[in-house]
Amino acid sequence: MQKKLILDTDLLDITISRLCQELIENHGDFSETVIIGMQSRGIFVAEIIHKKLEKLTKKDIPFGYLDATFHRDDFRRREIPAKASETKIEFAIEGKSVVLVDDVLFTGRTIRAAMDTMITFGRPKKVELLVLIDRKYTRELPIAADYVGKSVNTLTSQRVLVELEAQGHKQNKIWLINKD
Amino acid sequence: MSKLSQKHLLGIKDLTSEDIELIFETADNFKEVINRPVKKVPSLRDVTIANVFFENSTRTRLSFELAQKRLSADTINFSASNSSVKKGETLLDTVNNILAMKVDMIVMRHASPGAPHYLAKHIKANIVNAGDGTHEHPTQALLDAFSIREKLGSVAGKKIAIIGDILHSRVALSNIFALQKLGAKVMVCGPPTLLPKFIGQLGVEVEFDVRKALQWCDVANVLRIQLERQQIKYFPSLREYSLYYGITKKLLDSLKKQIVIMHPGPINRGVELSSDAADSQHSIILDQVENGVAVRMAVLYLLAARP
Fold first, then answer.
1. Across the interface, do B2 and A67 touch by the CB < 8 Å criterion?
2. How many other CB atoms sit within 10 Å of the CB of residue A151?
């Protein structure tokens, strides 16, 4: 198994800071914006970004997380069914700008399911997508991210492994793994 | 684990404690779903479910039907009272005819114990037992245990007394299996004529004094006297039963402790449970009904995941 480091702690800090600045540029004081992290692994990235944004803007920004399992298009097609996680959106998203946050954008199918799940809570004014890693040339649906931490050329057979301190790892490290 | 060990839900007896945990965790998510502005998910949109009821039911059938609709399944309802069963058709023929119309799942209630088990041997569709005679009523036991878990944080180590007509109750048997698998202590309480002779062999405590049972337990699950299943008289009169085994607010208050009152419905107010007890702050009866939809959604979803 070959492993290649894509982002380490220092680079990740810089990337997150840049993403936050980009968000502030577009959303100002975040009075009309909410942040929603994607279950299960996107919530850790979302939490880091949310904390940093609150620090930078000195505002309370609504934060929730969303599980898209029940809206997936591969139900009854997988050998082992996907396991659902908790959804927690304790604010209205009607008329708001939503920034959806995930760790890795791959086929785009999870994001499709997430958007369907989201509109069961209301009709947002606008939805944007932020991803830490954008895997190029692997999309199966016409979906693109508005904010990208790092674009990576990958093969479908490769895997992106995100290790964050928030998930209990020693250091923040993001790897590209070749499956043999 | 994100997969049930079983293809059917015939009884709690066949489930592992991991299966029950998986159903509960999935039901947690569905409970959140049914409290959203749009209470529906598209998961089962290409699944057709037949609700085949050979015995009367209001709550269970409504709850199943609602669970199916919230999952976007197509449903058809069948009740024996206005069907060809009256013309002499066999159970297997009836079900095979329904399945010939491309039905994926059967939810069945039948007066004969073992009817869904028999069907499971002969047909391919997933089967959910919605009550078979005096044998099992698995989804009721799951929602009861789920409600205890929700109210008290967990089921393990808790003391649960099942009070009333144990002899004719499928809810009692399924509850005993479910609660024991989750690590709870179970007691049954009722008049000796309404307790099966060898019930103690299931590892439950047996008590004839309702006051002692209430003093022992954290949760009392009160069952209805099933007059429709009683061909002979098991006690002199309903008034006498109510006098000795009826639970009133006065009795609950005199215990001077926290206690949770449950009832699978329908309640015979003034017989096994007085109105002031059923409507008191001890009662979680309506929470049970709400949880019933979420738990049934979880069961249908997890079974549909393995066609």
1. no
2. 13
Structure tokens at A152: 């990576």
The residue range of the domain holding B187 is 138-288
Show which of residues 10-69 on chain B sit within 8 Å of chain A, judged by CB atoms: 25-26, 28-29, 32-33, 36-38, 40-44, 46-47
Q: Are both B155 and B281 inside the same structural domain?
A: yes
Residue A12 tokens read as 């990740």
Is B281 found in the same domain as B295?
no
The residues, any chain, with a CB within 8 Å of residue B303's CB and separated by 6 or more, are B4, B7, B8, B9, B105, B126, B128
Q: How crowded is residue A114: how many other Cβ atoms within 10 Å of its Cβ?
A: 22
Model confidence pLDDT, tens digit, residues A78-129 = 777 788 888 999 999 999 999 999 999 999 999 999 999 999 999 999 999 9
Do B142 and B54 fall within a single domain?
Answer: no
- Whether pLDDT at A159 is above 90: no
Q: Which parts of A106-179 are beta strand (E)?
A: 126-136, 147-153, 159-163, 173-178
> Has residue B6 been placed in a domain?
no
Statement to judge: residues B284 and B196 lie in one domain: yes
Q: A80 to chain B: which residues are within 8 Å by CB?
A: 2-3
pLDDT digits (tens, 9 = 90+) for A28-65: 888 899 999 999 889 999 999 999 999 999 989 999 99
The helix/strand/coil state of B127 is strand
The interface predicted TM-score (ipTM) is 0.84
Structure tokens at B79: 């009740």
Query: Model-level pTM?
Result: 0.91
Which of B54-68, B218-232, B290-304 holds the top average pLDDT? B290-304
Query: Domain A9-22+31-69+85-150 adopts which CATH fold?
Result: Rossmann fold (3.40.50)
pLDDT of residue B1 exceeding 60, the answer is: no
CATH number at residue B69: 3.40.50.1370
Question: Pick from A56, A85, A159: which is nearest to B33 by CA?
Answer: A85
Nearest to A133 by CA among A111, A109, A106: A106
Cβ–Cβ of B36/A121 closer than 8 Å? yes
